[in-house]
Design brief:
alpha/beta; homodimer; 7 strands; globular; 284 residues
Chain lengths: 284, 284
């Protein structure tokens, strides 16, 4: 997904929010804003939004030093999600279609996102909504068919807390899963520690993609991760940032997400609030 | 009011919206965005938000030619507001405190604002809300006292349609009023024609401030307007942009507005949605 013009103001907002979360004072915030203005001024065409986000956070880090401003928020999200875990499992067990239930749960977990909203919605309410909602894009028949043929899955994680919802899907699918998180802190994206907090290490092999960027920016990923991606017969990619970076990464990639911004909505052809399971296009 | 850091992303949004309203194509939109980035890059400290808006719209005009993209919207706002006029007059007549009722009506009219939202709220609903709402800032005792002593009023208009609500206040006050609108199109700000459509010429002397900028940017105003401002014993200034430019323009200025953005909210000390009647500080 290329950067749309609406992403420009959004990038500035993201810069401000990151600066403030990192406890920048007013002058530092202004400096970060101005650096972001320059960044946007010189944006190469074809840049995708997570690449902008990566560079915005790089600006913040260069000024303020490396830190993990979302550390506490991530722990809290995981704690809340773990509290729901028994009820989520029950939903799957009682469902006529446990696989679909588990997919919906995994997508419901995608509501946990501090990049877009500062407040987290009531998690259980989101689960209930997602269970009643039709898919705006639904490639699940193809997804089911491909899952039946695959030996293992590369699962690209999104946010801490959402990990618990992913665990329900992974346990339901019952295939070997490599669960890839981020190498370093970026927003509230899950790190190894967050995946372990959610007990993903009990049902998957944990790796990182080698980056501290949202989504999956191939140019930044480690060779080890790229090899896993290459070899994976099927990839599940969670969340908007993975959609933004992988929507044309080939037909073995399935993006599971909630649409959170109008730009993605226009691209995917469904309004904000929609739930999507979409097979990526060829293109790479 | 100086420009806050949160105004930066907002200015980019305004640039995009103005470009699209003026039917700019994708490339023109990008050009306008980039010009706005440069503008923000070089922003002198002490710039206020309407000055940014003025220059953003200047960029749009330079690229696309002069036009009045809000022409139809302004006509429609005035039409809708005129439809409410008899009910607004009735509200005043039936009130125990007609003066306060008329002030509230004038502030309710300030909801008409395409700069902040694309959709207009239900007007009557806003009137009802504003009638039930306490003032978040209330300098009305001082305002009443000053009104009793003044020979005439300079009334600084805001948006088309809001003009009809202003008319109710002007008719209730019953003093000679000079009603100042903008010289050229800027957003949905009222021009002479819009004031005439709302029949302000029946109850006030119409002038312009010589600008095509929101608020009252003294550096851009005509000498004739500045003379009127100088000589006016009391000034009523409607809306956020007038607050942004006149909040320290002296104690004869009373700002009547609805708080529409968090930045103004922080400055005025009241959350978005608040209604405010505030005497300006000295400072000039």
């Amino acid at each position: 997904l290329k950067t749309y013009l609406d992403c420009y103001p959004c990038a500035l907002n993201q810069a401000l929010r990151a600066a403030r979360l990192s406890k920048a004072d007013e002058n530092q915030q202004l400096f970060i804003l101005k650096q972001t203005l320059s960044l946007l001024q010189d944006l190469p065409s074809g840049t995708n939004p997570p690449e902008i986000g990566y560079r915005v956070h790089q600006i913040v880090r260069e000024l303020l030093g490396a830190s993990d401003p979302y550390f506490a928020a991530k722990k809290e999200s995981t704690r809340q999600a773990l509290g729901l875990y028994p009820r989520l499992k029950e939903l799957v067990e009682r469902s006529d279609d446990p696989f679909e239930a588990a997919i919906r749960i995994s997508i419901a977990g995608n509501i946990i996102d501090y990049a877009v909203k500062d407040e987290i919605d009531d998690l259980w309410q989101t689960v209930e909504r997602v269970f009643q909602q039709p898919f705006a894009v639904d490639d699940s028949p193809k997804f089911r068919a491909d899952l039946r043929r695959t030996g293992h899955i590369l699962y690209l994680a999104d946010n801490a807390g959402e990990t618990v919802f992913d665990r329900v899907l992974i346990e339901t699918i019952g295939l070997p899963v490599i669960y890839a998180v981020k190498e370093g802190p970026i927003l509230n994206d899950a790190l190894i520690e967050d995946a372990e907090d959610a007990h993903l290490d009990d049902c998957a092999t944990l790796i990182t993609n080698g980056t501290r960027a949202t989504g999956t920016i191939f140019d930044l990923c480690s060779p080890e991760f790229l090899r896993e991606f290459e070899q994976a017969p099927l990839v599940i990619a969670k969340g908007q940032a993975n959609y933004e970076t992988l929507s044309d990464a080939g037909e073995k990639v399935y993006c599971l997400l909630q649409v959170k911004c109008p730009v993605i909505g226009t691209d995917v052809g469904a309004p904000a609030g929609s739930i999507v399971i979409r097979q990526s296009a060829k293109g790479r």
